[in-house]
Hints:
The radius of gyration is 19 Å and the shape is elongated. The longest helix has 16 residues, at about 50-65. By secondary structure, the chain is of the alpha+beta class. The strands form 3 sheets. The chain has a 6-stranded antiparallel sheet, covered by helices on one side. A hairpin with a 6-residue loop joins strand 4 and strand 5 (about 75-80). The chain has one domain. It has 2 helices and 11 strands.
Amino acid sequence: MHYLDNKTAYLNALLDKDVYVAQPAGFAVGAKGNVCHILRAVYGCKQSSFLWGKHFAATLAATGAVRSAADPCLFVWHHPTHGAICILVHVDDVLLTASALAGIRAIKKVIATAYTIRDFGEIGDFLGMRVIRDSATRSLTLSEACYT
Length: 148
């Protein structure tokens, strides 16, 4: 199980509506009172999270990954060589699992080609949960000890 983070995730999606903002202090182009036309989803826009999710889902679908009917955050890519690869997405955080490390490397390569990512490698913490894997007993334990 590996963990990725998409850096500047929202900026990868184009806005679907016209959004204008006042020019920031210290940045003045053109006449006084001009505004900036925002083209990309930015943090703070209401629709940014939705548009980023739609954009990322389209990237995964282009590889052949299929969104789960049970959970829209889960995608499964049936790779022709490496078998089933599970991709769990929460905003810009991505959890990857496959039966072999080669499968994880394959999906990492696809995602890294499309986006700037931080690869945290083998998972330790994810969304505030401690993830403990025990290969000997083939078990996975989630702990939220930081909340107790």
